């Protein structure tokens, strides 16, 4: 189990052997006034969550599952961008170990096209800004290919699969929180303008690829270009026009 410590925000890291969901547990703490920078981490999740209610595969003792509480003073419409900010922070920590590590809009990190990490940002809205935001992170760290369910093999990977090294979860969490602090503080000041967006676009997995965007019941065929300053995916549509998408999921056209 990861040893508790203070985060760069001055909050506590609360460590558990097992939880149903680190984000669900932290949400309850946030409702009761937990301070910004509080982190909940678990060796195992029985009901880890991804986007759209999907379950995140969370076996015991191998990988990193944690949630971070923020109380940002930014406009509500900017809050969905925090998933990309978190992805950029994770990339900054992990890219030296993984050549070709890429960011996939809106919330994944891929290595060789295989899913390495996922991010889920949730907020409780207030009158003019969020009361709080919870950023949930799942990273496949020390899993080997046989540790994944058969239906996920060929779609996912881990740091150990890619680097052939066993990684200290304590040290990795500490490094990630340091970079998340740096990136979220910068985002509070300047948004996605400048260095954060540049990093994302330089390592944007979908750039130049034919994709299908799933938005509700609609499927939109287009070619991805870049991420704009609002965190939207800019794409060229079939008729040659250009549009920006701020919600939905993107799949490579060949995989849809």
Structure characterization notes:
The chain is α+β, with helices and mostly antiparallel strands. The chain has 2 domains: 13-202, BirA Bifunctional Protein, domain 2 (2-Layer Sandwich); 210-255, SH3 type barrels. It has helices at residues 22-31, 82-94, 159-163, 169-190, 195-202; strands at residues 13-19, 39-45, 64-70, 101-104, 108-111, 114-125, 130-139, 210-215, 218-227, 233-237, 242-245, 249-252. Strands 1-2-3-7-6-5-4 form a 7-stranded mixed β-sheet, with helices on both faces. Strands 11-10-9-8-12 form a 5-stranded antiparallel β-sheet. β6 (114-125) and β7 (130-139) form a beta hairpin.
Q: Summarize this, please?
A:
The chain is an alpha+beta fold.
Q: Examine the secondary-structure arrangement and name the CATH architecture of the largest domain.
A: 2-Layer Sandwich
Q: Characterize the overall form.
A: globular
The residue-averaged pLDDT reads 91
Largest sheet composition: 7 strands, mixed
Fold-level CATH name of the largest domain: BirA Bifunctional Protein, domain 2
Radius of gyration: 18 Å
CATH class of the largest domain, anyone?
Alpha Beta
Assembly form of the protein: single chain
Instruction: Supply the number of structural domains.
Output: 2
Query: Would you tell me the structural class of the helices and strands?
Result: alpha+beta
CATH superfamily of the largest domain: Bira Bifunctional Protein, Domain 2
Strand order in space, largest sheet? 1-2-3-7-6-5-4
Helix content percent band: 10-25%
| DSSP, total strands | 12
Spans of 5+ residues with little confidence (pLDDT < 50)? none
Taken as a percent bin, the fraction of beta residues is 25-35%
Order of helices and strands: EHEEHEEEEHHHEEEEE
């Amino acid at each position: 189990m990861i040893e508790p410590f203070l985060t760069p925000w001055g909050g506590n890291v609360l460590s558990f052997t097992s939880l149903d969901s680190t984000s669900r547990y932290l949400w309850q703490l946030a409702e009761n006034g937990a301070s910004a920078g509080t982190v909940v981490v678990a060796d195992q999740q029985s009901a880890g969550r991804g986007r759209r209610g999907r379950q995140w595969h969370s076996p015991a003792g191998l990988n990193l599952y944690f949630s971070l509480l923020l109380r940002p003073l930014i406009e509500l419409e900017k809050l969905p961008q925090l998933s990309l900010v978190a992805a950029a922070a994770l990339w900054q920590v992990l890219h030296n170990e993984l050549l070709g590590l890429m960011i996939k809009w809106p919330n994944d990190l891929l290595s060789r096209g295989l899913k390495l990490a996922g991010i889920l940002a949730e907020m409780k809205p207030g009158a003019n800004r969020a009361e709080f935001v919870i950023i949930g992170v799942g990273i496949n760290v020390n899993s080997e290919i046989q540790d994944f369910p058969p239906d996920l093999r060929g779609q996912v990977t881990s740091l150990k699969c890619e680097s052939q090294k066993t990684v200290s979860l304590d040290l990795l969490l500490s490094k990630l929180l340091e970079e998340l602090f740096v990136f979220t503080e910068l985002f509070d000041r300047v948004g996605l303008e400048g260095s954060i967006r540049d990093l994302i676009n330089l390592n944007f997995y979908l750039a130049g690829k034919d994709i299908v965007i799933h938005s509700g019941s609609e499927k939109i065929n287009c070619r991805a270009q870049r991420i704009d300053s609002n965190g939207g995916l800019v794409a060229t549509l079939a008729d040659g026009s250009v549009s920006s998408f701020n919600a939905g999921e993107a799949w490579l056209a060949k995989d849809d």
